Amino acid sequence: MAPKDHDLVDTGITFASGAAYGMTTVAVGQPFDTIKTVVQSSGEGTVAATRKVIAESGIIKGLWRGSLPLVLGGTFMRSAQFGCNDLARDALRDSSIPSFKIGGVVESHIVLAGMCGGLGRAVVEGPTEFFKIRQQIVAQWSYREALSGLGVTMGRNTGLFSAFVVYMDLLRPYLGDSPFVYGATCSNLAWLTVWPCVEINQCVWPFDVVKTQRQSGRHPGVSAPALLANAFREGALFRGLLPGLVRSSIANGTSMVVYKKVHAELSRLAGRDDHSNI
């Protein structure tokens, strides 16, 4: 990572660009996210879930269920992930903590900063996702349940965004100059990294499926480890993967284009060089 002057204006530009990314993701990707959530929480197939949602509520109202929490929370969620990643990179660069190559390939500072970005996102995403999921599956909810699944969300996001920035750093020279291509590619690779089972202390952790099940309210009294074991026994580790990857490709590819354009324009208006970390 090349040193660069960075101040609150640059940080504000990054947070604002992340907010634009978040709003775009909701507008473009919500239909696929709704289907993914229904598939993961109910066990139905993708086609059956799509037909059910449209039959119950129509195309627009049905597929964009849960948009309001994400328009509000998702804006801050993406803003937090990019902003915290940016701040962490600067803090690590200016600190006495040495950077080294993990496995001779990945800079440790990039991984640590990505983890900070993922945690920043999780703080906002936890309750936001709870309300979104309850709306998507048309289930009752209460404010006391808003933090259910937060621990799983934090674990997933730490790995997810860290993987995303690592892939961005490693693959940028090979993916050309298209923000859509490397946004979609790196997002999908990051999802595939955290989606399947990862064995930790002999326990299987399919983060995204379990997060959705915890927040759906359809498994009261069932702990995350128990849901993880059930998902493994039922072969549900990749449940909802297809709509999830379609959403990831279209939403994150388009959102990365918006992020880059907003970052460049705000940098121009502020009289700064456009030196985004992403």
TrEMBL record:
The keyword Transport applies. It is a multi-pass membrane protein. GO terms for biological process: mitochondrial L-ornithine transmembrane transport. The keyword Endoplasmic reticulum does not apply. Its main location: mitochondrion. SUPFAM superfamilies: Mitochondrial carrier. It comes from the Eukaryota. GO terms for molecular function: L-ornithine transmembrane transporter activity. Solcar repeats lie at residues 9-91. This is Mitochondrial carrier protein. It comes from Pelagomonas calceolata.
